[in-house]
Design brief:
mainly alpha; 3% strand
Length: 946
């Protein structure tokens, strides 16, 4: 038998260009001087393409040898024609050699905080039920793992052969990650057959093009190259006609040439012209199924001698899996097995795999190939395989198993459960498919109450995530009457209220609000359904503009000891609403804490899709409301990046769009905001309530662009929609504040009426930021002394709020107005403070305007650099603690020897630093609330704290 080294050497004939490219790539990776660690080193991707047998594996094998010789750490994996349905098959080949020799403690060290998310994907058995991470979470974890491995074991060469047969989950990760290799000490080498690339694998072609290069396409051997192989094997007496015929019948394919010459030698044929007909003999494949262990060993040896199976690897210990010498042989053998026998062999293989303790997922690829026969054993293991795949973050693989289980079919009493599991497996990626399966599950006879409730809940979610809010509300409304328990009925009522709230086209909002208010009055908050209803009542109170104290009361009752964002039985919508209530009630620091907790929870469970996108974006929105504009922009962009990985035109996407546009406007970058908005102008808004309200943000941008007519039209439509739904809070949707300015030039009387109505609504809500912003808007459309009076009152309220940017704008406008009436000293105080706030917020345009106003007042503008994240000073801490305990300003001043005005100034800085108004200080500072019994609903008008 021909030695492996001989075959490798011969297979590499006429591959000088490819091997030269390998050497260049390895030199870039390792550096020209291995002894100089400071040299420039670059990773990347190198690809080799060509038909089967042309020599890709041989080139990659030689690359492995050269990389090892240079001291590289080499990882390798190979796609399999019949393993494409086994999720993370290729990924597991890469890491199992590293992980197989160590225990769980070392695995946890290697995987770090990603252990629970990534371990199932790399083939580790994780104790406990755990959760089901979404695919993006697993991809992020694999990115981290490979990045860490590359840094710790640099330089690293990752060789991936037969990528056209890689499983979809591994392929999806590879395509997304490969671009990072150039920034790591990592060289990724791939080999694939272009003609066998599926639609899902087509992106493999572009792996190298991202770096400005192209795949190396291996050409067939020339007649001279084929002649060299023939004479090496058969002797120099092989004549030219025989050699050329070998080239003609093989097309110059190196594998076929080597196999053909080996068979000619084994048959003792003379390489002469008279024996040309013998070149076309076929090689028969042997079947080793059903043999005893002794017979199997003998047959394996014979098949290896016949060059059908690969010979045992030298130096390998223990039992080795059987491998065909080449994938072409594996394909030919598999296709030659009669269909009925092949199905039976898959069933036998599944039994062997399960008996060996390898798990249902490992057996799943065989179970998928079996004919449906109504076998409950097959259904059971396919359902278990799906659960394993979902735990590994491979919902597509899980869905394939469940779809096959449905075709088995399952027993009638089991069919609804299979449909339910199948629907849930598609919820994150294809909610419309989920709807079909869950509707079918609801129609199954004999549904148990618990399963019916679970199906209804998931179906409503699927409708909601597809933007079909009305249908989401209708499906839970239909189940309210069917509920067999008070708990289930209350749960369905909570879902119905929630999805109706999210409808942008809800026609009966006032009636729904009244029903919810009556229901909430009788709730104690003991169960999760009651807490969710209280959270919805709080949200409704806030958006309708009821006193902020009322909204905060219900929000506190709903929050209790915390609300999970990743509970499989409850959605994350109400926890987000509760956080937004604190944000709009002048307690953004509290909201940020809740958003950060939710983000951390999502990251721990590997939920890196819409949940995380919402959390990061809304954290950015909270920073915007506090005036930290630089951070707000960064968070909004990151939230949009994650949201767009899930899909465009989703609520998470539009939340990021609205937040980013509003942030850019606040920073004075109007042109950039216009260009960004134009890039999303053709997208369709979902029929859902968004925060911030995107149509309102568009109106604000039109106003900032001096397109007052278009702004009036846009904002008038928003006003009709909001007032029609009873959503009258100018903090939640500030359309009136912008409308007043849009009307100022053409209809000042109507502008004043709109502004005055906004002030009335703000005073009813009662927070200082709401009143301050509304008064500022009223001042913008007022004249003379009335304007200065309104600006002074606006500043007074905003000083008692955590809204740093709104205060800075009001201070600059107040200072400018004072300068224009000849009060330069008072103007200078406001302008200096406004400039300080603008710089602190990152509002460059506002800071520039403040400096211009100072120059016009004859004062010297200062270049300020203020850190808004600085901790409280000792004096601020002392003042804040006393205020949190309920002390009035005059008593604090008397105790600390400060003027009352100085106490107010110190508290103003505290509010913006910690992110709350006076009413939220006790919670953030951990001070007992003054004279307030928890659970008692505040009565009477006014702000929650003053």
């Amino acid at each position: 038998m021909m030695g492996r080294q001989d075959r490798t050497r011969r297979a590499l004939l006429e591959r000088e260009a490819e091997l030269a490219a390998v050497d260049v790539a390895l030199t870039d990776l390792c550096g020209s001087d291995p002894g100089d660690p400071s040299g420039t080193r670059t990773g990347g991707v190198i690809a080799f393409a060509g038909p089967g047998g042309v020599g890709k594996t041989a080139v990659l094998g030689e690359m492995r040898r050269r990389a090892a010789h240079r001291g590289c750490t080499v990882m390798s994996a190979r796609g399999g024609e019949h393993e494409q349905g086994a999720a993370f098959h290729v990924v597991r080949q890469l890491f199992q050699p590293v992980l197989a020799t160590t225990g769980e403690e070392e695995h946890r060290r290697i995987l770090g905080s990603w252990y629970d998310i990534v371990a199932p994907a790399v083939g580790l058995v994780v104790s406990g039920s755990g959760g089901s991470p979404d695919p993006q979470g697993v991809r992020d974890g694999l990115d981290w793992l490979v990045t860490r491995f590359a840094v710790e074991h640099a330089p690293v060469v990752m060789i991936l052969d037969d990528v056209h047969w890689a499983d979809l989950e591994s392929l999806d990760w590879l395509i997304r990650f490969a671009a990072r290799a150039v920034d790591l000490p990592l060289l990724i080498a791939v080999g694939y057959r272009p003609e066998d690339l599926t639609a899902d694998a087509a992106a493999v072609r572009g792996l190298t093009e991202r770096q400005g290069s192209r795949p190396h396409v291996l050409a067939p051997l020339t007649p001279a190259g084929v002649g060299r192989i023939v004479r090496d094997v058969l002797g120099e007496e092989a004549d030219e006609a025989f050699c050329r015929e070998c080239w003609a019948v093989t097309g110059g394919n190196p594998f076929e040439v080597v196999e053909l010459t080996a068979k000619v030698r084994d048959r003792d044929l003379k390489p002469q012209t008279v024996n040309l007909s013998a070149l076309r003999e076929l090689v028969a494949a042997a079947n080793v199924a059903g043999l005893s262990e002794t017979e199997t060993t003998e047959q394996v040896a014979r098949l290896a001698d016949a060059r059908i199976l690969a010979p045992p690897r030298q130096g390998a210990r223990g039992a080795q899996p059987l491998e065909f010498l080449h994938p072409l042989i594996a394909t030919a053998v598999y296709q030659a097995i009669p269909g009925a026998l092949r199905v039976a062999m898959h069933g036998q293989a599944a039994s062997v795999v399960l008996a060996a303790g390898l798990g249902s997922a490992a057996a799943g690829r065989h179970l998928l190939e079996m004919h449906p026969e109504g076998d409950s054993w097959v259904v059971r293991h396919l359902r278990e395989a799906a659960r394993e795949y979902l735990r590994a973050g491979a919902p597509d693989a899980g869905r394939r198993c469940l779809a096959r289980a449905l075709r088995e079919p399952p027993a009638p009493e089991e069919r609804a459960a299979v449909l339910y599991e199948l629907g849930c497996s598609a919820q994150l990626t294809e909610p419309s498919v989920t709807v079909n399966h869950l509707l079918a599950a609801l129609e199954e006879p004999g549904l148990g109450s618990d399963l019916r409730e679970a199906i209804t809940y998931r179906l409503a979610q699927a409708y909601g995530y597809s933007g079909r809010m009305e249908e989401a509300a209708q499906v839970v409304a239909a189940e309210v009457g069917r509920a067999t328990s008070a708990r289930a009925r209350l749960r369905m009522q909570a879902e119905q209220f929630m999805w109706n709230m999210f409808r942008a086209d809800e026609k009966e909002s006032p009636a729904r609000s009244r029903r919810l208010a009556r229901l909430a009055d009788h709730l104690t908050g003991r169960g999760m359904a009651e807490r969710y209803l209280l959270g919805l009542r709080a949200w409704d109170a806030m958006t309708r503009g009821e006193p902020a104290a009322t909204a905060l009361h219900y929000a506190e009752e709903a929050l209790g000891d915390g609300l999970s964002w990743t509970d499989d039985d409850w959605g994350f919508e109400v926890p987000i609403l509760v956080a937004l209530i604190f944000l709009h009630c002048d307690q953004p620091g509290r909201a940020e804490a809740l958003f950060n907790t939710g983000i951390a929870e999502c990251e721990r469970k590997g939920w890196r899709g819409s949940h995380l996108a919402f959390g990061i974006t809304l954290l950015g929105y909270a920073r915007l409301r506090r005036g930290a504009l630089v951070e707000a922009e960064e968070l909004a962009r990151e939230g949009m990046r994650i949201a767009d990985l899930v899909g465009s035109s989703t609520p998470a996407h539009w939340t990021a769009v609205g937040t980013l546009i509003e942030t850019l406007i606040s920073r004075g970058r109007i042109r950039e905001a216009q260009e960004f908005a134009a890039g999303h102008g053709g997208e369709i808004l979902p029929q859902a309530v968004l925060c911030p309200d995107v149509p309102t943000v568009r109106g604000e941008l039109l106003l900032a662009s001096n397109l007052h007519g278009e702004a009036r039209q846009q904002l008038a439509e928003v006003g009709r929609r909001m007032d029609g739904r009873g959503m009258r809070n100018p903090v939640w949707c500030p359309w009136q504040l912008h409308m007043a300015q849009a009307l100022a030039l053409t209809d000042p009387r109507q502008a004043a009426e709109v502004a005055d109505d906004a002030v009335r609504r703000a005073r009813q809500f009662g927070t200082h930021s709401a009143i301050g912003r509304a008064l500022h808007s009223a001042a913008a459309v007022a004249q003379g002394s009335e304007r200065i009076k309104l600006l002074a009152e606006a500043v007074s309220h905003l000083e008692r709020s955590p809204s740093a940017y709104d205060l800075a704008v009001a201070l600059v406008d107040h200072g400018a107005a004072l300068r224009r009436v000849g009060l330069p000293q008072e103007a200078g105080d406001r302008l200096y403070r406004g400039l300080e706030g603008a710089v602190q917020c990152g509002a460059d345009s506002l800071a520039s305007r403040a400096r211009d106003e100072l120059s016009a007042a004859g004062l010297r503008p200062m270049q300020l650099r203020v850190d808004h994240t600085s901790p409280l000073t000792s004096q601020e801490q002392a003042v804040a603690e006393r205020a949190a305990e309920g002390w009035p300003d005059d008593r604090i001043g008397e105790e600390m020897g400060l003027a009352e005005r100085e106490v107010a100034r110190l508290l103003s800085g505290v509010y913006r630093k910690v992110g709350t108004d006076r009413g939220g200080l006790a919670t953030l500072l951990g001070t007992p609330r003054p004279d307030r019994t928890r659970g008692a609903l505040p009565t009477g008008p006014g702000a929650p704290g003053d």
